[in-house]
Each structure stands twice: as structure tokens, then as C-alpha cells.
Design goal:
Length: about 200
């Protein structure tokens, strides 16, 4: 392993540890020492890569975001994945449907709180939402081009999807007995199905 590869591996390990610690105890309770210990590196090495908690938090959020939904276009058979399946997989990734995604959601909640009083966090949150908007919009546009979806206002539909995911996702994070994962998914899909002119049943993914 080259020096550059070792540095990249160390950076990835630190970011993974930071995500886990922040999700576990909240950013306000996080110290650089706690992250270093969790990552199994020295505090000096941690500071070499990230000189402030704020920079570490921003990088951890970006790292977490980058790991989300990377397999939405994957098909084990090597064939083309229908646009409805791609969009359904994106919805799955945007809801706290497993332990890893619940951790991502905890990070998002930390970001929402920080964004209320910190300009850098606010800009980061807006940027990540823009990327989510483009991700959803890209899947919708793909379906329109292939003829799987009816032509529609892509930007408006993407905004609706994100709003529904946020609202229902919060209730899932609260373990609200009135909303389970299947209900959340079906509610979102039934809401957007008429606009896309597709079956209102959530696709098999």
C-alpha cells in the first residue's frame, strides 16, 4: 500500500468513526479525542486530516451522503433496471429503513439543528438537498425519456418526494406507531403514481 493509499484509508476510517460517534451521542457532545479513539488513531493524526470539529462534521456528512443509495441502478442480471424500480430504490434509501440508514438520519437531524444557527451548516444542508433533488429528478427524467412515466413537472415532483420522505422519515425515527416502513413507502408511491401514470402499488425492489 502506498503512502497516499494509507492516508486515504485512514481518512475513510476517521470519517466512518465520526459518523458513528456523532449519530450515537450528538455533535455537541463529540470531541476530537472521542473520534480519534473510536477510529483507532492518535489525536495528532486526526488533526492532521481535520483541524476542527466543524470541518470533521461537514466531511462526515458528505461522506455519509456519498454512501447512500449507491446501488439504485444495479441489476444482478446485468440488464436494464426499470425507472420505477430505480425511483423506488431511491425512496428506500431516503427513508430510515435499516440500521445504517437510521444512522444517516441521525446525522441529518444533527445537521438540521446546527443549520439553524450556523451558516456553514446551513449551506451544507442546502447543497445536500440540491443533490437529493437532482438524484430524484434524474430518475424521473429517465422514466419520462423511456416512456415509463408520463411527462410532468420534474422539479415539482422531486420536491414533493423529498418533502414526503422527510415528514414520514421523522415519524419512523420516532417509532411512531401510526407509521411503519411499508405505510410510508406506499403513501409516497400512491401520492406520486397518478402524476407518473404508473401502478399505485410500490414496486418490488
Amino acid at each position: 500500500m502506498t503512502k497516499a493509499e494509507r492516508a486515504l484509508e485512514t481518512r475513510e476510517r476517521i470519517l466512518t468513526a465520526a459518523c458513528e460517534v456523532i449519530a450515537d451521542i450528538g455533535f455537541e457532545n463529540v470531541s476530537m479525542r472521542k473520534v480519534a479513539e473510536h477510529a483507532g488513531v492518535s489525536k495528532a493524526l486526526l488533526h492532521y486530516h481535520f483541524d476542527t470539529r466543524e470541518k470533521l462534521f461537514a466531511e462526515a456528512m458528505t461522506h455519509s451522503f456519498a454512501q447512500t443509495g449507491t446501488d439504485t441502478d444495479a441489476d444482478a442480471e446485468g440488464g436494464s433496471v426499470p425507472a420505477a424500480v430505480v425511483l423506488a430504490r431511491i425512496l428506500r434509501s431516503m427513508l430510515p429503513s435499516d440500521a445504517e440508514l437510521r444512522q444517516d438520519w441521525k446525522l441529518w437531524q444533527e445537521l438540521w439543528v446546527r443549520a439553524q444557527r450556523d451558516a456553514a451548516a446551513r449551506h451544507l444542508a442546502v447543497d445536500l438537498y440540491d443533490q437529493l433533488h437532482a438524484w430524484v429528478g434524474g430518475a424521473v427524467e429517465r422514466g419520462i425519456r423511456s416512456g415509463e412515466f408520463a411527462d410532468c413537472d420534474v422539479a415539482a415532483l422531486s420536491t414533493l418526494v423529498m418533502a414526503l420522505c422527510d415528514g414520514l422519515g421523522i415519524r419512523l425515527m420516532l417509532d411512531d406507531p401510526g407509521v411503519d416502513l411499508a405505510t410510508a413507502r406506499s403513501t409516497i408511491w400512491r401520492t406520486i403514481a397518478p402524476t407518473l401514470a404508473v401502478d399505485p402499488t410500490f414496486p418490488q425492489i
